[in-house]
Write a structure and sequence with these properties.
This protein has 98 residues and is α+β, with helices and mostly antiparallel strands. It contains two helices and five strands; from the N terminus they run βααββββ. The termini are far apart. The model has no long low-confidence stretch (mean pLDDT 85).
Length: 98
């Protein structure tokens, strides 16, 4: 979905990108470079269904910047149509002093 350009960023994710001076392309690169994806059930009051899965990815961009992203797959009429990014920011590994 991300490779096909079917990704939508939440307002929160867009704010995080701006604060960390990242682009949507940086996040897409990170997701496409991921070798491990963690999943968990969403506990958000904004989830669309009871068993909505959240995908957590920490992976580098092509230039080596580690990015943390969290998202879910949204469906319409039972068909997976896009990846909704809830959060997208620098990984804790990039924070100074850590």
């Amino acid at each position: 979905m991300v490779a096909a350009g079917q990704a939508v960023f939440s307002r929160k994710a867009r704010i995080e990108l701006a604060l960390d001076d990242l682009t949507e392309d940086d996040v897409a690169e990170s997701i496409l470079n991921a070798t491990k994806v963690r999943t968990r059930r969403s506990r958000s009051k904004h989830r669309r269904k009871l068993r909505e899965r959240v995908y957590i990815i920490e992976a580098p961009t092509n230039s080596g910047i580690e990015i943390y992203s969290k998202g879910t797959i949204r469906k319409k009429a039972g068909e997976e149509i896009f990846y909704f990014l809830i959060s997208a920011k620098l990984s804790r590994e990039n924070w100074e002093g850590e």
